[in-house]
Amino acid sequence: MAAGAALAAKRGKRSKQALKGASRGMAQSMSVAELRKMAKTKRSKLPTKKRSKR
Questions:
Q1: Rounded CA gap, 46 and 11, in Å?
Q2: For residue 45, is it within any domain?
């Protein structure tokens, strides 16, 4: 999600001042091609949280 927000800012569809946290750093340090590759990663089968060991 952060990569998508950073990509939108790079393309001018979102203001760079509205970015927070990881997306702000990504927008400054990564190219449009790198952001596009990260933003299109599927998230449906990825875990949302790390499971705690019991």
A1: 27
A2: no
Q: Which domain holds residue 24?
A: 2-39
Amino acid identity, position 25: G
Measure the CA dihedral 19/16/14/35, to 10°.
Answer: -80
Number of structural domains (the chain) is 1
Is 12 contained in some domain?
Answer: yes
Task: For 10-49, give one letter per residue: b (16+ CB within 10 A) or e.
Answer: beeebeeeebeeebbebbeebeeeebeeebeeeeeeeeee
3-54 pLDDT, tens digit each: 889 999 999 888 888 898 889 989 988 999 999 998 887 777 777 777 777 7
